[in-house]
Amino acid sequence: MHDFVFPAVTLPESARLLRQQVREFLKKEKDAGTFTPRKNSWSDGDAEFSRKCGQAGYIGMIWPKKYGGQERTALDRYVMTEEMLAGGAPVGAHWVADRQSGNQILRHGSERARELILPQIAAGECFFAIGMSEPDSGSDLAAVRTKAVRAEGGWKISGTKVWTSSAHRAHYLIALVRTAPKEEDRHAGMTQFIVDLKSPGLKLSPILNIYGAHDWNEVVFDECFVPDDMVIGEVGGGWNMVTGELAFERSGPDRFLSTYQLFLASMERLGETPDVRSVNEIGRFVAHLTTLRRMSTSVAGMLTKGEKPILEAALVKDIGTAFEREIPEIFRQLIPSEPLMDDQSKDFDALLGMSVLKAPGFTIRGGTREILRGMIAKGLGLR
User: Fold this and answer.
1) How far is CA 347 from CA 27, 29, 169, 243, 337, in A?
2) What residue numbers bound the domain in which 172 lies?
3) β-sheet bridge partners, residue 149
4) Does 113 lie in the same domain as 21?
5) pLDDT of 368
6) Which residue has the higher pLDDT, 143 or 238?
7) CATH code assigned at 61
8) Strands, E, within 6-153: which ranges?
9) Where residue 304 sits, what CATH number does that domain have?
10) Last residue in a domain, options 187, 211, 237
11) Same-domain check for residues 213 and 275
12) What one-character-per-residue DSSP string does 184-240 give?
């Protein structure tokens, strides 16, 4: 049975100084008209803004300098991330590469992959997508059917990935595929590959969301060749790779700050003398946010020590996405508004409307609540 413990973390002085530097960077860019605060900034990307983040040293911060990094701590990176999200910065282009894909390559990739890809990511010039989900498999990653077979100098991949966010804007995809037939151990026989999205034998098709925007994609592999030095970790060890990767994906402030801009705008709309119910709801949200920050920074501290807080990360993700999903539901009831479907408008009605529209997906992306709660219950010895 797993004991859930979230030790308190004291942010170092370097993190305090960095927080001020990031705020000054964002103010300078906003004043210059580079961006306006976005509603759900980590899924809203701007390639030019990503390059500016790279120039400022805000991508790949924890990586070795030889690969373009800054050799800073996970807590320093946490502070930078928090400020970017709280400021509504359009960081979506480099988000996946910085948050998880680059870390996978650093820890488990070949030296050629590190030297080729990591400096490009750190410069804000190389973006990644995640190839996990497949048709008819839901959140059951063990049901992966896309397969890779041996070829001279590498592997040929065939199959389909779906709901692949931002693949049309990415340069690479990390795909989880089968390299051996299914056996009694459902988690065996899978491998992660770094796939160049310009490779022959690969086709992207858009999946439009309810208001017509192109966020997702279907990715079809037809004997798409991937060289041996683009394998991540050991062949057949993909399950351990992907579960370790999810600790980076599930525990950060992006899992509770997606509707932070709406939270701020709603408090401003309610004014200095909100009614009793509004005061109670604001107080409750602030208390939840404070607790989530404590849990999330604790996970960042564990990652700094080289630990793998997979279950703790799952708990942060479950509670955090419930929090960010609840914000639009509550303020929709408290503030008279006619929500709009307009992802470009800065108007409150559009901010509320788009948040209401996107919020149901918060508890699905990165693993559904049902899957996560099953993991947590198993960790507690309840199943």
Assistant:
1) 20, 21, 27, 40, 11
2) 130-237
3) 156
4) yes
5) 79
6) 238
7) 1.10.540.10
8) 128-131, 147-151
9) 1.20.140.10
10) 237
11) no
12) SSTTSSEEEEEEETT-TTEEEEEEE-TTS-EEEEEEEEEEEEEEGGGEESSTTBHHH
Q: What is d(CA 222, CA 219) in angstroms, rounded to the nearest whole number? A: 10
Q: Do 81 and 175 belong together in one domain? A: no
> pTM of the prediction?
0.88
Q: Which positions ≥6 away from 314 have C-beta within 8 Å?
A: 246, 250, 367, 372, 375, 376
Residue 150 has pLDDT above 80, yes or no: yes
- Asked if residue 342 belongs to a domain, the reply is yes
Decide if pLDDT at 29 tops 90.
Answer: yes
Domain membership of residue 197 (yes or no) is yes
Residues with Cβ within 8 Å of 217's Cβ and at least 6 positions away in sequence, in order, are 129, 164, 165, 166, 167, 168, 204, 205, 206, 207
Which amino acid type is present at position 249? E
Is there a single domain that holds both residue 360 and residue 266? Answer: yes
How many Å apart are CA 59 and CA 210, to the nearest integer?
32
- Please report, for residues 210, 253, 304, the alpha-carbon distance to residue 291 in angstroms, rounded to integers and kept in the order given: 33, 12, 20
> 310-334 and 348-358 are packed helices; what angle lies between their axes, rounded to 10 degrees?
140
Alpha-carbon distance values, 103 to 64, 96, 232 (Å): 11, 10, 11
The closest of 63, 98, 101 to 81, measured between CA atoms, is: 98
Rounded to 5 degrees, φ, ψ at 94 are: -100, 5
Amino acid at 285: F
Three-state SS at 190: strand
**β-bridge partners, 203:** 220
The answer for 232, left when phi > 0, alpha when psi is -120 to 50, beta otherwise, is beta
Q: What tokens appear for 136 in the block? A: 């008819």
CA angle 284, 250, 165 (to 5 degrees): 110
Of 78, 97, 126, the domain-final residue: 126
**CA angle, residues 86, 92, 95, in degrees to nearest 5:** 95
Per-residue pLDDT band at 72 (split at 50, 70, 90): very high
Domain identity same for 305 and 342: yes
Rounded Cα distance between 90 and 305, Å, is 30
